[in-house]
Design a protein that fits this description.
Layout lengths: L3 E5 L4 H13 L5 E9 L9 H22 L4 E7 L2 H12 L3 E5 L13 H7 L5 E5 L12 E5 L4 H17 L2 E9 L12 H15 L5 E7 L1 H9 L4 E6 L13 H8 L4 E5 L10
Parallel strand pairs: 1-2, 1-4, 2-3, 4-5, 6-7, 6-9, 7-8, 9-10
Antiparallel strand pairs: 5-10
Helix pairs in contact: 3-4, 7-8
Length: 281
């Protein structure tokens, strides 16, 4: 099998981190496309608009040429859009990509890839799986041998599991799933003494065991904190999401956004509608 992977680059180390992650996730014969988003002036009536847009286009073309000269195995594209997130979404839909990989918070020549609002906007409403490379991933030599999975037995978890299995098939990694039985932060009573909680933990463990090819662990606590801790124990963490409202919302509350900001390992967020197109070799 092979993947078609779009990589967001903008001239800084975050782009290098994204390229490194894409290479480690990609099965043999995958197609890797580096994309720079040229964010153009949204006010064409301004007298300086034409000069501004021309400069942005020139910088974007120069940047993608530099990226390709340093990475001859990559294809390269410039996408014009009103925002980084919109540009990445558009090019992924046009190319029918399986995955988009982006870097963590940095500023670059063309615009910010996942700096502050860009990480949320790229995750929200994404038409396909989004992988976020942590800071300085390019200088690490950590192989992908263990794929973590956030599992809650919902349809979003099914999508995440399917994508994790595809990644595992391409990388040879094993899958280790965790199911978080959420406990309200204001609940200070002893966890093991609550029959309802004990029943939920038992049910979650049974559902994990039924997955068959996945090693499973059940924990109790707050979802974001438990998944962040779990992410540190695996080489990449895969979680599911769905779209809500006109901009889309992360299914697991703010957990995915929290992970994108705080996880020290790569994160893959799979939207409920994401059905990667796997091209046979």
């Amino acid at each position: 099998m092979s993947f078609k992977i779009v990589i967001g680059v903008n001239g800084d180390d975050g782009g290098s981190d994204a390229i490194a992650l894409a290479r480690r996730l990609a099965p043999p014969a995958s197609e890797l496309i580096a994309v720079t988003v040229a964010v153009l002036d949204g006010h064409p009536s301004r007298a300086v608009s034409l000069d501004y847009d021309a400069r942005i286009r020139h910088d974007a073309l120069t940047l993608i040429a530099d990226v390709r000269s340093e990475n001859p195995d990559l294809q390269g594209e410039v996408q014009e859009a009103p925002s980084v997130a919109a540009g990445l979404h558009d090019v992924c839909e046009r190319l029918e990509a399986d995955l988009v990989v982006v870097g963590s918070c940095r500023r670059g020549i063309i615009g910010r890839i996942l700096a502050g609002d860009d990480v949320r906007k790229t995750l929200r409403g994404a038409p396909l799986a989004v992988a976020v490379a942590p800071r300085d991933f390019a200088v690490s030599d950590q192989p992908i041998t263990t794929i973590g999975l956030g599992w809650d037995n919902g349809p979003e978890a099914d999508e995440a599991l399917a994508f994790a299995r595809r990644l595992a098939e391409g990388t040879g990694a094993g899958i280790h799933a965790v199911s978080v039985v959420a406990v309200p932060p204001w609940d200070s009573s002893p966890l093991t003494g609550q029959p309802a909680l004990a029943g939920a933990v038992e049910q979650a463990a049974e559902l994990l065991a039924a997955l068959g090819d996945v090693e499973g662990t059940t924990v109790t606590g707050q979802t974001s904190a438990e998944l962040t801790a779990f992410a540190a124990e695996v080489d990449v963490l895969v979680v599911g999401s769905h779209q809500r409202g006109p901009l889309g919302r992360i299914a697991m509350g703010s957990a995915s956004e929290h992970l994108a900001r705080n996880a020290t390992r790569p994160l893959v967020v799979v939207p409920r509608a994401a059905q990667p197109v796997i091209t046979p070799v």
